[in-house]
Design goal:
The chain is mainly alpha-helical. The chain has six helices and no strands. α1 runs antiparallel to α2 and α2 packs antiparallel against α3. The protein is elongated and about 75 Å long.
Length: 168
């Protein structure tokens, strides 16, 4: 389990690098770092439990039980906090994404990240393609279209025009 959590934490940190323009918060990779720390602690606790069981030590098993109870309480607390603050996280991420979409010009690094995100997640805009209608890029192009990264991958000759939403 500790090895699995270590892999997940490392994967999240590695993936964060692709989306760091959307997550300007310096604390965004913190959950991944916490996951890696939890993996290390789990490994140590597992060793304590195995050694206590092997030696049949009442003190060791009592310590193991106390640690497991503390971990259980921490997990319940984390679940409750995640449930309570889920809307705040959602609005923070959406506002950051809106600001990145506002900077889109088709050539800067943020634009490349937006295109990559839309292609990889098969999405268009923050909520849908209509989000593009309020951006400077949309108003400056004057052709009522969204970036080509909004086009479905299975469609050919997509122009990104809003009068063909089935292609987006």
């Amino acid at each position: 389990a500790a090895a699995g959590l270590s892999y997940v934490g490392a994967y999240v940190i590695n993936t964060y690098k692709s989306y760091d323009n959307f997550l300007h918060d310096k604390y965004a990779p913190l959950p991944a770092a916490i996951i890696i720390c939890v993996a290390v602690v789990m490994f140590v606790i597992g060793l304590i439990g195995c050694c206590a069981t092997f030696r049949e030590s009442r003190i060791g098993l009592g310590l193991f039980l106390a640690i497991i109870l503390v971990i259980f309480i921490a997990e319940v607390s984390a679940f409750v906090l995640g449930f309570v603050y889920r809307e705040k996280v959602k609005t923070d991420v959406q506002s950051t994404m809106h600001s990145v979409f506002e900077k889109y010009d088709g050539q800067n690094p943020e634009s490349t990240v937006v295109d990559y995100l839309q292609e990889q997640l098969h999405c268009c805009g923050v909520k849908n393609y209509s989000d593009w209608t309020t951006t400077q890029w949309f108003n400056s192009t004057g052709n009522s279209s969204v970036p080509l990264s909004c086009c479905r991958q299975d469609t050919k000759n997509c122009t990104g025009r809003l009068d063909q939403p089935q292609q987006l």
